[in-house]
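Researcher: Let's try something more involved. This one mixes different molecule types, so please make sure each is placed in the same coordinate frame as the others.
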Amino acid sequence: MLEIKNLHARIVDDGTEIIRGLNLTVKAGEVAAIMGPNGSGKSTLSYILAGREDYEVTEGDILYNGQSILEMDPAERAAAGIFLAFQYPMEIPGVATMEFLKVAMNEQRKARGEEPLKIPEFLKRVKDAAALLNMDMAMLKRPLNVGFSGGEKKRAEILQMKLLEPKLCVLDETDSGLDIDALKIVSEGVNALRAPDRAMVIITHYQRLLQYIVPDSVHVLYRGQVVKSGDKSLALDLEANGYAGVIGEAA
Amino acid sequence: MNIHTTPQRTPAETALIDAFGDRLSLLPGDGTVMLKRDDAIEAIKSGLPTRRIESWHYTDLRRLLTSVPDFDPAAAPNAIAPIVEGSAVLPVLNGVSSTKTPDIEGIAVQRLSEKLTDGSIAPGLDRYGADDAIGALNTAFVADGYFVDIADGTELDKPIELQNLQSGGQTHVRLLTRVGAGAKAVIVERQTGEGAALVSSVSQLLLGEGADVTWLIVQEQPDTATHLAQFKAHLGKDSKLTLFVMNAGGKLVRQEIVVKTTGEGADFTLRGINLLAGDTHTDVTMVLDHAVPHTASTEVIRNVVTGRARGVFQGRINVHQYAQKTNAKMACNTLLLSDDGEFSTKPELEIFADDVVCGHGATVTEIDHSHLFYLMARGIDEKTARGFLVKAFVAEVIEELDDEAIVEALEARLDDWFLAHG
Amino acid sequence: MPAVQDTIDRVRKIDVDQYKYGFQTEIAMDKAPKGLSEDIIRFISAKKDEPSWMLEWRLEAYRRWVTLEAPTWARVHYPKIDFQDIYYYAAPKSTPGPTSLSDVDPELLKVYEKLGIPLREQEILAGVQKTDVSELEEPSDNVYKSGRVAVDAVFDSVSVVTTFKKELAQAGVIFCSISEAIREHPELVQKYLGSVVPTSDNFYATLNSAVFTDGSFVFVPKGVRCPMELSTYFRMNEKNTGQFERTLIIAEEGAYVSYLEGCTAPQRDENQLHAAVVELVALDDAEIKYSTVQNWYPGDAEGKGGIYNFVTKRGDCRGDRSKISWTQVETGSAITWKYPSCILRGDDSSGEFYSIAVSNGYQQVDSGTKMIHLGKNTSSRIISKGIAAGFSQNTYRGQVSAHRKATNARNFTNCDSLLIGDQCGAHTVPYMEAKNATAQFEHEATTSKISEDQKFYVMQRGIPEEEAIALIVNGFVKDVIQQLPMEFAVEAQKLIGISLEGSVG
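Model: All components are placed in one shared frame. Result:
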């Protein structure tokens, strides 16, 4: 489903190269965890997948279902089914969360040539999803992410993920800032979305999240490259021995 | 209304124009300088600014400047100690600089009268706009002052204190300072004296690349003095200027601050305190130009108004079209403590670049009653509690300066004022 | 959020020139000769069958006006206006007032159809004399959920029709054209006209006092809550015509009225002058809510043509506990010069100003408010949202003052500016004047652009760039939109979207 080939990318503003020859393949139905120390390029990778203009791909390609997505803008990628759960979700004053959800869902439907959702159907979907994530509907009437706690923001991200039904979910440090209860709820929400036709890329610094969302593969990112891949035991190994060993091997 | 009339000259305007005729033969300057003086007096002949001139909206100089003293000082001013012990002092007494200049490594000091005579200062005498009345007044009459040149890389461990001391009459002084690349200095500008005076004082500061300067203006004129001052600075690449202005005196005061960032990475900080008492009028007007990308500024002005004092703060931040990534913040907070006091604020943003973060805030309030109540509930009587809160309100700005000697010196000036007006 | 969707749809439907109201209507007009003189003023006054006191009032203003010069302090630039090259009176031939549908020029009805004045109103406009109240009260599912709206339509200089008059009269509310009020209610007009904006107030107000041709008059008597929204649509049609309407609204003790004005004009290469005066008077415990959706023709993409909108609007909170609230959505005009103000004269009175000013192309906006605190315990609130795009200049200019006797005056001001593109300018010029120690003023202002982070976030959810910006902008102006009557809120959101069309690079 996702194939990243020899990807090189740099920051447009100052030309700093962050991703330096990254290769990664994620199949449909697979949950891939990307781990790595701070500054290894994890968040950058998520932004590049989503099409952020601050980064420029200088070499290599990203194939999604066999097609290159490099020329697509963020909205087109989203409509094609790529979803990024942000590490720091943006606050958008004055825009009620419900309105935002409706516009986003209907825009994506439109892009796929589907009819807009009828209001009752929309409400039902939102209510169901909110219940699953233990979210209060009152919160969804508030402006998007404004005044939400860290945990509420992350839950709202997963809620959006559920409603938008993407095919490729990229979760950027979704566990950061969550207490253990919130982590469980968010993880259950994510696990419920695991499906044979859906791939997930879970970016995390710690193994903690992977106790709840058990990955099919684990990849260690260091200096903009995948330096080691393995199954879920690799995550446990990293937890026990730190990154130094793996990085040392690679260097 | 917009009815245009040609008004009669006021006594002050007439006195200034007459004085120019009388003084002309005594004023130093080569041909270029003298031509600039002629232009300047022409500007005064066309009338002092009124409230119809936007930048003078709250200070109708034509109406407020009711009389002009002649040039003869009443006495010789007394020397005063610098606010920070050990500072190198450059005194200007009744408008005349000293022939003795301190010998400090990396610093060259020249009397301004010499620069007027040889004409090398001429370009700096240009006014910065049609409404630059202080510039015009000063250019017409300026006879002396200093030019201080701090060499590249010089780091001064003690402040330089420029003292402009008057004992009545008119004084018109210019203080020019160039701070070389990478140099670091603290410069104190003292403005004080006694007697009925008209003072115009223009300070010009040029900051080289990476220069770091703290400039303190301490104005403590008597309530018989008209004090018209200007501070102009250009901030070069990666330079840093912290300007601190304290107005604690004067009958009619206008302090203009004209700052321009001319190099990327320049950083400007303004901290101001206006302590206003009696039947006085004090106006601080700032025009800040962010002329290049990636520059930052913050301005905080705190005002305490007592008696029948009238205060004004005008602050305009201009962000030019190419000055992207400008970060500018301005705040003006006023405590209005008497029923007869007034304060007017006009914080302006003029923004032509889109990728900027600019903001300003302004408040006019009484003392916070809950704070007052809290202190009184701890057994502090109301008068003491009020004094405590008012002082804390302004001291907060001083304490931000991270130089202990300076903070102490300024707090001492603050204490003096509260003692006299508390 | 249907408005956003609608905005986008609407934007897509519009051609290169985005101004949808830019049609001209061929209607037989009755015009005075070009230029201004005492004779023209006599002509206007005679045309309107005015009493002699009104003529004298006009002439006095005119004599004053010739001694004045146009103000230059605002941050707007335009060539000197030749006041002798303007028609000061133009009226559709069918005046005065239709008595049956057939009297209303069908072209005129089409105009209102094109203006998008909601269907229900058009029926009312057309069926003006079929004023069978019960029939009009039939419930309907039209957009006016909050109730019915009485409309006064002003076409060039003349009020062509006012709806719901009879029903309003039953409640004691007078809603008619100002010309009619001068004839039918001279005692009220004489008492209040010029009492808020004196004839000598400023250059354009003085001009208006001399030549105003029509406008709306509202009188809500003591204790009456006006049973419906009142609305005036202003339309400038005739070439080289100035529009000088005059609106006077009086709310007596304890009365309440909500009034909305909407404005459009055809596309023309020349600039047209609009110099209106609006006066509001609120007596004890009265409340007036005045909303404006201003969409005069802004000029073309090169800055050619467009309306010069030089307007004096002022409300006088004359009574204790009175309240006046201004809400404006300004998207049109080549130049806007407008400061709806409140004089807080009564004790415990309050004033509000909510504004959205959108500028694009070469538009110049210098707008804001004045809150003059005179009485005790008065309060005011200012929320201003400026959005500048294209090559436009957008200035907020506002004054808040507390006079010596205005103990406990309170003001809160928030003005935020949003810049879209790097060729436009946003300026904030607040004047705060406190002369009373118990005053509490709080002012905050920010200027920024739409954050790239926000835009990326919204687009990541599948929302295309242009709509992402519309969404964020609508969020930015939400606080003000909420102040509008609901039906107009939707219209205003659409207008903002349309106005910003093409600004995304």
